[in-house]
Design a protein that fits this description.
The chain contains one helix and ten strands, in the order ββββββββαββ. The chain has one helix spanning 140-145, and strands at 5-12, 17-24, 31-38, 45-51, 57-60, 91-94, 101-107, 124-128, 151-156, 158-159.
């Protein structure tokens, strides 16, 4: 029997459908992140991050700030992995002409094992209205959010049924 953990954030709103899957087999292994989104406005770039809470009592607004387990400034895995939030993910998703975004990548900043305070368990994925400036916007908000804009859609990261995703 596999000791791998599988989590999923499911989107089913007017503006976004699909899911983001997370897969990790040991505490030492890197988390595989798989985006499979559709139904979005074609040919757009949107910011996408993990946020710190899974509390949707006030919709996407009650999900808190970007997940930031190492108390760093907002940045990008592509610029300096050590100077970015845990939840910065890819920063931006580039939606194709058919309104889809599909990609799989490995994110060493994420963890699904151990203490809930140090993992993505119970957090959320938010797709924003704007484009993430990767912390390079030259203002205080850029170092917090990347000036990503409003919250267009959100989903809680939940445990998936074993064997159902990978």
């Amino acid at each position: 029997m596999s000791s791998c953990l599988n989590f999923i954030a499911i989107f089913n709103s007017e503006k976004v459908k699909g899911n983001v899957k997370f897969h990790q087999c040991t505490p030492e292994s890197i988390v595989q992140v798989i985006f499979d989104l559709y139904g979005m406005e074609p040919n757009k770039t949107r910011a996408c991050h993990i946020h710190e809470y899974g509390d949707t009592r006030q919709g996407c607004t009650s999900l808190g700030a970007h997940l930031n387990l190492n108390n760093t400034e907002h940045g990008s895995i592509f610029i300096d992995i050590n100077d970015s939030h845990t939840g910065d993910l890819l920063n931006n998703i580039n939606i194709d002409k058919d309104g889809k975004f599909k990609i799989s990548y490995n994110d060493p900043r994420l963890n699904m094992f151990g203490n809930i305070k140090n993992s993505i368990i119970g957090c959320s994925v938010i797709i924003h209205d704007g484009i993430d400036d990767l912390g390079l916007g030259g203002n205080e908000e850029s170092k917090k959010t990347g000036n990503a804009g409003g919250r267009m859609a959100c989903s809680i990261i939940a445990k998936a049924k074993p064997g159902s995703l990978f």
